[in-house]
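Final report, section 2: Outcomes. Of the targets proposed, USP domain-containing protein is the one most frequently requested by collaborating groups, and we therefore present its record in full.
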Amino acid sequence: MGGGAIKPATPQEAGDVEMLNSIMGGTLDPAHALRVLRKHNNNLEKAASALLEGDTGEGAADPYADLPNLEPLDTATVGPRTPPPSRPEKPVIDLTKDDDDNELERALQASLAETQPTTFGPSNRAPDPSWAMVPSNAEISGPAGMSQDEQAMSRAIEASLSYNVTEDLYEELPLEERIRKGDTPVALRPTGSGYTYAALILHALFFVPQVRNAIAEWLPRPEQGGEESNVTEITPPTSGAGWSVWTMLELFANMDLARMSELSVDAAMNAFAAEQWNNPAERPGDASFRFYDSLAYAVEHTLKYNNLCNPERKPYRLFSLQYGLHDAEPDDLNTDNLCCVKVSVGMSPEANDLVSALAAELAPDPAKVPSAKRQVIMEPSEVIAFQLLRDVAPPSYDAAIGRRTERALFKYPRSVYLDQFMKESFELANEKRTAQRKILQDIKELEAKKKNLLYHNVRRDVRHTDGNSSTDVTQDKDTLADLQSALYYYENVAESEDDPKRAEEIRTNQEKLKQIIDKVTTEVKSIDTTVSQLKAEVGGMLDCPELQRHRYDLRAVIVHDGLFGRSHLYSYVRSKGKWWKTVDYVVTEVPEETVLSDATGLHLGAGPYFLLYSRAMPQEEEDARAPWHESLKLLTMDQDAVKYNNRIFFEQLPPEVASQVVDPNSPPSSPRVTATPSEHTIESDTVEPPESRDEPMDTTN
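The predicted structure is given below as tokens.
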């Protein structure tokens, strides 16, 4: 691409070329990339766009183009590109001119007065990029010349440039690719990508044992009166909250028993009147919060007022916890119900995990918020959801130097105890937090003492580039490093020149410096040990049996990678001791560590945004199949409908494929001669609103 050698790339240009090469899939000619980069005045984004449009870089001015035998762009540089300096960059303090008794004192004072530590041994300066064969801030696994920040931004640019609106189109897989493998979870897919967030919430709720069992055990009351014990007269609800819950019942039964790997949830979107998320500027978490809040109300309302299994109409706290001021009574009119807790992420480094963030909100320092205004949980719910709120604007990025302010990973645990936030444990938790704050104050004072031992503040005037003004700047100098440098001088540089008095002074100064260094080092080690012990004590102060009676386990995590489209929202769910990731129709098993540390989308202000926890239960109960009611067969033959849909699905498969399918969960029962077709048949191309919920649910589209 273009003739002649070109001027070698600067370190910054080399990093930009590597970034462009990664964006283009690693097949880009470095010289080609450099010409395009220079043609666009080293603007990385413009160069990336130009390369995608086929720009060859022709016409880029290069004053070195006609000079022969220059270093090729892709040739590794052996050794430093510039010779090392023949003398120190800063003047070395002369410790040999005067032999008086104040020599050591003057040396230390002069060392502390310098703005850079004086070193007599190996240099501890930051590496010069032009000297390094491999940049020191590059990840070993990343392209040469790119820092971790640049790699993250490269991935963001690559994803943005490669985004295609066709990703939002609903792709219907061939039947033979829709066979469920073993116990792999079934994916839920809406035709419109704007409902993906809602489908993921419904999908996640199935894997919350308490929700799955509550829905499976529910039976609606008769719509036309009559004896409630006579279940043969009951018909499924066709409107209102009951219709929504009946839709969940059908959906969950098919998720448990169907042999298809994916199910359509368009009918469910109609039943729940879900809104579309079609504005990339809006956080999907906000739409998720509204959908989840509406769903929780519908389910709890139905379980209380339209439930044959609850004739007394007792309230069922499946989703909604009750909270209020700690001195209020549970029946106080000022208490409120809440099904999803909003948690601000990244407010401070000290509160960058779920429990700390909740403590900052519900148990603040009494010096800032009086105890009388403290909120506590009056009655916990079986399930608790958290919406993680991040600021909308992405981190800053300086294209000139390739540095950004990266968001720290927000931690959420596998299990969390809510006792410390509950009314019944308020006094004990408050007592322990008071002791905790005292220890934290002790840690703060010890760390300040350590800093005073190791660093010395030096004030200096920094002259501005205009030469007419300056700024007073305070810098921290490493005192211990200065002492070690002085000791290095006396041990390796200073000469006695056969003068016994001078030799004795050198030896005496060595001993004094060693004693000072040993004392400082010993004191610092002692502080570090004490701080570590105090941190361990303060970290486990609330981990006592009295505050560990209400354990909640993580069931699902929903993630946004920062871009728009159905494949840019995905979830993790726990099923039978394993974690599964669902992206559109693709379901794969992942390790738990991936679930707890997914940093996808952080560089775009996104990431994990919705967490579902529920009360811990024994593993065998958690894994047990939901108790689908036998009387459902007398209502809409729901369980037989699943079997019927499975049989229809198998009949549509090619014979050689169908013969290899094993149906362990729901083998077809006796044929249903007068079966009613599903709302959406396998052959249907369009989705029509159902006229009656008597029809079996679609499990084929």
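The chain is about 35% helix and 15% strand.
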